[in-house]
Amino acid sequence: MEKTDRNAWFQCINENCRKRYELDEIVYKCNACGNLLEVVHDMARLAAMRSPGAWISLFEKRWKSTEFPYGSGIWGKKEWILPDIDNDSIVSLYEGDTNLCFVKRYGDYLGMPELYMKMCGNSHTGSFKDLGMTVLVSQVNHMIRHGAQIKAVACASTGDTSAALSAYCACAGIPSIVLLPKGKISVAQLVQPIANNSIVLSLETDFDGCMKVVQELSTRPEFYLANSMNSLRIEGQKSISVEIVQQLNWEVPDFVVIPGGNLGNVSALAKGFRMMKELGTINKLPRIVLAQAERANPLYQAYKSGYENFHPMQAEKTLASAIQIGNPVSVKKAIVALKEFDGIVEQASESEIANACAEADRFGMFTCPHTGVALAALRKIMKQGIIQPKHRVVVISTAHGLKFSDFKVRYHERTLEGVDCKLANPPIVLEPKVERILEALEQKMGR
Fold first, then answer.
1. What is the sign, positive or negative, of the torsion defined by CA atoms of 361, 367, 369, 372?
2. Strand pairing of 20-21 and 8-12?
């Protein structure tokens, strides 16, 4: 389609193409030039609908309400997400609305008085993936209700995507298929799609291998692709930006630090900030920091050369298993976003990841290893003098630490291979005698 009477549509990201498609079409890449698509909104219509102040008032009114579906952090901003979908098609588990945690004591310790963590893992399945999945599954539900012959929704996953897909499909009564790299995700992540009655395929490959298979599978129209190359996911994830600004009384932070694997979240947050600025609810953009694990860092390598050359890599095993991706599908979108937002890309070693998690946990957090990547990158950029004490910084915490309890246990047992567990705090085994306990306490705490 080249023209549409809809308020939002798919459009090719290639500036020399920009071909349009209906959101009801089963399409993931442009069939004219092969580039990724993005959801484009009729911004003139949105600007004419409400003034910036009226949009702010509407979103404040809906925040955490009990009126379905507007109490969801996503669907409370429906006009900016999927404006044409009917409410009866929406599949929501009241995702989003997650807390922006002012980590004052931790921030003071780091020399960063205005440090916040956006706790995206405090969501239904324990990760930010819920935010995009409610949009994608709702659209699929809408399409099925209008005659689409979709038999199942499928994804490749390193854990969190499969959990979100399986939960939302189960809620909607739509079959789901998840392809996981055998032995490369946590038990907690594996059991989520199993419990939600997904068809779970454990493949003897890595994530990139699973991604290749699911893309081949989704060439059949009965299997709808749910990975982040499907830009419906980005529409939900961009709400993170809007929530951050809303929770800061509609002020923009100076820096946002994002862990990156398949790189959909970078373009998603950029899109949210860009949309707010265009509609006048904010007047500036933050700088974006992308953090990658050293063992899966293809964009970091490209960043060092000014993005002149991007080369996919064979990702090595990393504690940050959800971002163990060597050939990210959203890399072109991410590079565009980083250039626009004066972006920085940094990396973190395995020891830096593990110790950053342990350090944050000592201040009341319970961080997943991917958040540890972001925190380790934050420390490095602070040392470079780019992020300074005067700046307001938001770190995106992508998943709940309980999904990675085995990682936590092994850290404190000092059994993580190749990691110097500097802050390990193993339990003290003692006889049940008060004098022995007091002796141990005196040794641990001092007089």
1. negative
2. antiparallel
Distances in Å between the alpha carbon of 88 and those of 85, 233, 277, 281?
8, 19, 31, 29
Report the alpha-carbon distance of residue 123 to residue 73 in Å, rounded.
Answer: 10
Could you give the CA distance from residue 260 to residue 233 in angstroms, rounded to a whole number? 15
The predicted-structure confidence for 344-385, as pLDDT tens digits, reads as follows 999 999 999 999 999 999 999 999 999 999 999 999 999 999
Contact 160, 371 (CB under 8 A): no
Q: Which domains does the chain have, with CATH numbers?
A: 1-41 (no CATH), 100-124+234-412 (3.40.50.1100)
- Residue 223: φ, ψ to 5°: -115, 110
Confidence of residue 3 (pLDDT cuts 50, 70, 90): very low
pLDDT tens-place string over residues 72-108: 999 999 999 999 999 999 999 999 999 999 999 999 9
In a 10 Å sphere around its CB, with 0-12 CB exposed, 13-18 middle and 19+ buried, how is residue 269 labelled?
A: buried
Return the bridge partners of 317, or none. Answer: none
Per the structure block, which two tokens stand in for 373?
């990547």
Measured in whole angstroms, the distance separating CA 126 from the mean position of its chain's CA atoms is 11
Alpha carbon distances (Å) from 330 to 141, 186, 440:
25, 24, 53
Q: How far is CA 345 from CA 16, 88, 249, 339, 349, in A?
A: 27, 41, 28, 11, 14
Among 272, 269, 318, 274, which Cα is nearest to 298's?
318
pTM exceeds 0.70, yes or no: yes
Per the structure block, which two tokens stand in for 43?
């911004």
List the structure tokens of 242: 């809007």
